[in-house]
Amino acid sequence: MTDYTEDKNLIELLSQGADERIFTNEKGLTRYGVKTCNHKIINRGSCTCSVVTGSDFENMKGIYRSMDNEADWIAQNDNIFDEIKKIINEPSKDNFELFLAPSGTDLVYFPIILSKIISPEKKILNITTCIEELGSGTRLAAEGKYYADYNQFGEKVSKGNSILKDEKIETYFCQARCKDGFILNNQEEIIELVNEHPNHTIIINLVYGSKSGIEDNLDLIDKIKGDNILWNTDLCQFRHSKEIINKLISKNSTVMITGSKFYQSPPFCAAVLVPKNILKKIPLKTDPENINKFGTVFSSYDCPPYLRKRLGLRETLNPARIIKWRATLEEIEKFNTLPKHKVQEKIIAWRNAVIKFLKEHKEYELMPFQEDTNKTIISFRVKYNGEYLNEQSLRKLHYITVTQNYDNLGEHESMVFIGQPVTYFNDKSFLRLAIGSKNIRKFVKDDEVNFELDRKIVNILTTNLKNNYENL
Q: Of 379, 377, 381, which is closest to residue 347 (Cα–Cα)?
């Protein structure tokens, strides 16, 4: 059994390198109600706050202890660029460059930076779809403002203040769902906005895999043409094949990914893939001010080695991000050894079983269009005595559920983590059960068919609802 007290420095490091979402309180818990490391937890959240378990901790400990000096950290950092490209690039192709970041929310700044470098004189219209199912700081980041109180360097910043000072970025946010929970099609809305702003640089942020697995129609990219359009696709859930990613790159869309969701690696570690066709548009002589203003957010080590001196950002390493990406890459390598047909078989079997378990309880109602969302995520509303729980009540139920110990979950596991509530249309909200690569690897290894552990998790949630309803 892993003894996490052995390496307090590593534990502390895993709570650094990002904004305050990863900070821990006096109980050692993050804002999500979980510890940074816990070998006794069952993860059915597969989301931003994935918890480090024993095997991951041992692997990271090995990397951490091997770092003797700054040169070692730089070498590990630079290797991340090569390995991500190797995983995603199609054979004999090298169509994109990548930039690293502490979190998916930080990645939202990249299209703004590219816009200011390529067309510094133009105003920016930043359109974002599926807004209520993205990170809570996305609205501020899309406006070019600080979305948190701390940056990746542990420095205090002024949340809500503009990073670009006098620059005003126009934003437009498309809702993912209507009041009845149905998924909305925003295509005509976006086309109209583009036609109304011919003199702007227009950033269009699509989402291919939201918190509940919603996938925008990527054909929109082919319907809207123009030199003033910059496409950006949020694949932060990282639940799709490299074929999808390469398809987007071929359409000249930047692509955002993170390691802490599907690959269940420690939060936060993120990257944006930038097609080389976009990078070619960057003038040889660029105004360094358009980049340097983001020096409170990014470091030169977030950039490819050949661009570092040219961009002129601060030279500050983020060891936490390096360790987390190393863990992600190792998990990707393990997952990629699984036969694809086995992966799909277990995903579908898990999904069918959990939907069946939920339907056994009158307290749960599947969200509409469940069949059109990613198969590794199941979203459902919760009700009691005929009334749906709102966002505040669901957050309380979630916190109660993930902070308790349970004695019927197996030999080693005694805690459960499930997906956080997602809010839509005022305070309507739903919960999620989701699986990631580590869950699927275990299902394949054990040839799981009954998923009784998931039945227990659904029963635990039901018991917590009934026992605590008056206080929710």
A: 377
Taking CA atoms, 459 is separated from 348, 444, 466, in Å, by 21, 24, 11
Average pLDDT, the chain: 90
Total-model pTM: 0.93
Write the pLDDT tens digit of every residue in 341-396.
Answer: 999 999 999 999 999 999 999 999 999 988 888 899 999 999 999 899 999 999 99
| CA gap 147, 275 in Å, rounded | 26
Q: How many angstroms separate the CA atoms of 1 and 197, rounded?
A: 59
Q: What is the pLDDT of residues 287-297, one digit of tens each?
A: 666 677 888 99
Give the per-residue pLDDT at 1: 43
Banded pLDDT at 101 (limits 50, 70, 90): very high
DSSP string, 239-290: -S-HHHHHHHHHTTEEEEEESSSTT-PPS--EEEEEEHHHHTTS-SS--THH
At what angle are helices 319-335 and 70-88 packed, to 10 degrees? 40
Question: Residue 233's beta-bridge partner residues?
Answer: 206, 255
Packing angle between helix 70-88 and helix 242-250, nearest 10 degrees? 90
Please give the helix or strand (H or E) that residue 434 lies within, else none. Answer: strand 428-434
Q: Distance between CA 60 and CA 81 in Å, rounded? A: 18
Tell me the C-alpha to C-alpha distance, in Å, between residue 450 and each of 14, 292, 340, 443: 35, 55, 20, 10
Helix (H, G, I), strand (E, B) or coil at 201: strand
User: ∠208-210-215 over CA atoms, to 5°?
Assistant: 35
Tokens for 266, please give them: 């420690």
CA gap 191, 300 in Å, rounded: 36
CA separation for the pair 15, 37 (Å, rounded): 10
DSSP state of 232: E
Give the tens place of pLDDT for each residue, 38-73.
888 899 987 777 888 877 888 888 888 888 899 999
**What is the predicted pLDDT for the residue at 288?**
62
Burial environment of residue 389 by CB neighbours within 10 A (0 to 12, 13 to 18, 19 or more): buried
Helix H or strand E segment including 88:
helix 70-88
